[in-house]
Amino acid sequence: MAKQHIGIVGLGVMGENLALNMESKGFGVAGFDLDSKKVDSFANKTRGKNAVAARTQDEFVASLESPKRILIMVPAGKAVDAVITSLRPKLAAGDLLIDGGNTLFHDTVRRIGELGGSGILYIGAGVSGGEEGALHGPSIMPGGNPEAWPIAKSVLQAIAAKADDGSPCCDWIGGGGAGHFVKMVHNGIEYGDMQMICEAYWLMEKVLGMAPDECSRVFADWNKGELSSYLVGISAEILARKDPDTGKPMVHVILDTAEQKGTGKWTGQISLDLGVPAPTITDAVFARTVSALKQERVAASAVLKGPSPTFSGNRADYLEMIGKALFCSKICSYAQGFQLLRKADEEYKWSLRYGTISSLWRAGCIIRAQFLGKIKEAYDRNPNLANLLLDEHFAGIIASHQPAWRKVVALAVDSGVPVPAFASALSYYDGYRSATLPANLLQAQRDFFGAHTYRRVDKPGTFHTQWNA
Questions:
Q1: pLDDT at 262
Q2: Cis omega (within 30 of 0) on the bond before 67?
Q3: Residues 113, 119, 120, 126: what is their CA dihedral angle, to the nearest 10 degrees?
Q4: Contact 29, 5 (CB under 8 A)
């Protein structure tokens, strides 16, 4: 029996779909899972195809050609370590392990180090696109041992989504944990995008009094222009859907408590660790944690008072303003994400290519959007661009759209409707464009109570004042 080109450990929906994707591109695939039912499912779906459903790990490893390429698709954390530990004695120098889960990049760095003496190569690859993307073409962000890339490249680029220009949404990110770090930032941006879209919908419903199907038509219209994206498109579909049991709009029968898997939280935490402002991404995470306080919010709603939403203007004009606010906030969220990538690159020396990263997100992934092409163009013009807001294209959009953005945030505040992502993005923009900030008083406070010193505007050095003298 011919040896298989690649193996997959973990035959959940993502692993199984990636295997089917690989087989459809001409690669022989071996699949293994500790759950025999998942192996049975894989065997049934690959009957007659170039695939092996292995019943034991030994059978699985023996079915692979050398150097052996193994994609690990199990939950991040201890499960990945367990798979590596069990596979390691069965592998030889030059074999390759690829972790395709949502792994914290520090863990990827640790695993590369632990495998260093064995000669076993390791890649941490972020994979975005969900179940559909895994089957038809995801965005893939690989990083790790550079010598591993030639071994994995043909398979990963073959199964990746293709952008409009035909290029695969998969390319080498960098050494160490670069691939998983970029995927983490992708997910952080995804949190921001989702929250902003929810805020736009909420303003339509709560301030303008629009029904979900009316909101759906607005999102569908937005999806034809500068806001065109996967998330805007699916939001239009969701808002149009009726619950078959009650006939009510589907969004009205879904409980308003959002869950999360942790990658957005990691983005916020690491932005704090690296000293990079990412308030919009972080506020999107906090919006989910506030939503989870459902019982407290219901109780508080009977006690805590605020303004009632009112609107007396022109609905069409305001809808246009909401769209502009959404786009401006989106630009700021991406700017924060790319600033975080830049700072991490300075810290870890990955030699990230920001235009390439944005191009990998043009198709297949959850944050795929029309304007990612413009981000690539911005970094093609200036690979050392300090902030996306400073690019002439995006600076021009913010300049033209910001009056509407400010009016939307102001009306939301006056109406008592929370818009944390819109508001934090605007605050970020205003802070970044300010030549001076009130941190002079803050430094004086720190020096007053803790003798932390300060710098002066008129001469070099550090200074301390005896404030109580």
A1: 80
A2: yes
A3: 50
A4: yes
Question: Between vectors from CA 86 to CA 84 and to CA 92, what angle results, nearest 5°?
Answer: 75
| Residue 345 to residue 174: CA distance in whole angstroms | 10
Q: Which two tokens stand for residue 200?
A: 């736009």
Q: Reply yes or no on whether the pLDDT at 7 is more than 90.
A: yes
Tens-digit pLDDT profile for residues 408-442: 999 999 999 999 999 999 999 999 999 999 999 99
Bigger pLDDT: 14 vs 312: 14
Task: Collect contacts of 373-378 with beta carbons under 8 A, ≥24 apart.
Answer: 375/334, 375/338
CA distance 390 to 60: 52
From the CB of residue 366, how many other CB atoms can be counted at a distance below 10 Å? 22
What is the amino acid identity at position 318?
Answer: Y
Give the pLDDT score at 2.
80
Contact 376, 169 (CB under 8 A): no
For 260, the token pair is 């999360």
Q: Would the pLDDT of 43 be above 90?
A: yes
For the annotated catalytic residues, the residue numbers are 183, 190
Cβ neighbours, 10 Å, residue 273: 11
Is residue 1 very low, low, confident or very high in pLDDT (cuts 50, 70, 90)? Answer: low
